[in-house]
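Hello Y.,

Per our agreement to keep a running log of every chain we model this quarter, I'm adding this entry. I've kept the format consistent with earlier entries: sequence first, then predicted structure.
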Amino acid sequence: SSRIRNVEVQSADGVAVLEDCIGFSLTKTISKVEEKLKKGVSPDCQDDDIISRVGNEMGEEAQIRLLKAKLRVTQEDLANVVFECRKKEDENQNLETRLKDTEEENTRLQRTISVQQSQTEKYKILSQEANKKSEGLQQEVMALEKVLQ
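Predicted structure for the entry above:
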């Protein structure tokens, strides 16, 4: 017990937890390490080596309880990461389905536009022909009116 006095230990559900481990989050730790790697700084791995810092000051049972608590926290963080990953996979699947539907709709609309454009061209040509025929008939009517007068 004299060895443990130097280390602040908190008891939670019969498991000793070091003050350094309270609020430990695997995702936060990974983020911090990634940030340090991006900056080119070698990450310090103090959190990974808690036992070696206080190993001489703790008994074996306390070390085992600490490791079990750390394992439980790590497993909870892993479960959270797996849950988030599955959630993101579901969201990706939904977005992929929506994208596929949108692409199919886009293809269908492009075909419709193409058909309508060809019909528009066809009707423009028919309209031009009808205008020419109408002009010809109007000139013929004017000529016939002159003949009648």
